[in-house]
């Protein structure tokens, strides 16, 4: 069974930065497309960023474009989310997700992903 474990969340002031990590088990990690989603209380889980298996293609939600950067290190079985210029509106639980399919679907949809982590809390104070 594939396991995903997020880390790096915490409390930060507006304008600050955090770097989230997601460690993934399994030898097939290098062929997984990976995504980050977030969910605030009372809201739906929102697409944040995604990256294909090679790392050459990335995608971002409109609300984070230009501020967040997704990357991956296949040798370490880890995907990262660098978050800069954080706003209170970025406060949420952040989840990483893995798509094991050979042919990648729409990475902005929750339904595309096969595995999910437990999430890490990000709180941005004003």
Topology:
Blueprint: E1 4-7, E2 10-13, E3 18-24, E4 33-39, E5 46-51, E6 58-60, E7 68-73, E8 78-83, E9 92-99, E10 115-116, E11 120-125
Description:
This protein has 126 residues and is an all-beta fold. 0% of the residues lie in helices and 47% in strands. The chain has no helices and eleven strands. The strands form two sheets. Strands 2, 4, 5, 6, 9, 10 and 11 form a seven-stranded mixed sheet that branches. Strands 1-3-8-7 form a four-stranded antiparallel sheet, with no helix packed on it. Strand 7 and strand 8 form a beta hairpin. It is globular and about 40 Å long. The termini are far apart. 33% of the residues are buried. The mean pLDDT is 94.
Gist of the model:
Helix content is 0%, strand content 47%.
Radius of gyration: 14 Å
For the biggest sheet, the summary is:
7 strands, mixed
Number of E-state strands: 11
- Strand fraction equals over 45%
Report the total helices: 0
The ordered string of helix (H) and strand (E) elements is EEEEEEEEEEE
Uncertain stretches: none
Report helical residue fraction.
under 10%
Task: Report how far the terminal alpha carbons are from each other.
Answer: 40 Å
What general form does the structure show? globular
Estimated structural class: mainly beta
**Overall average pLDDT:** 94
């Amino acid at each position: 069974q594939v396991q995903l474990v997020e880390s790096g969340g915490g409390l930060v002031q507006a304008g600050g930065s955090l770097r989230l990590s997601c460690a993934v088990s399994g030898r097939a990690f290098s062929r997984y497309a990976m995504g980050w989603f977030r969910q605030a209380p009372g809201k739906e889980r929102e697409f944040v960023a995604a990256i294909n298996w090679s790392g050459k293609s990335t995608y971002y939600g409109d609300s984070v474009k230009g501020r967040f950067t997704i990357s991956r290190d296949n040798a370490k079985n880890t995907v990262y989310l660098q978050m800069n210029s954080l706003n209170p509106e970025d406060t949420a639980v952040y989840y990483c997700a893995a798509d094991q399919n050979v042919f990648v679907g729409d990475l902005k949809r929750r339904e595309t992903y096969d595995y999910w982590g437990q999430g890490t809390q990000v709180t941005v104070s004003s």
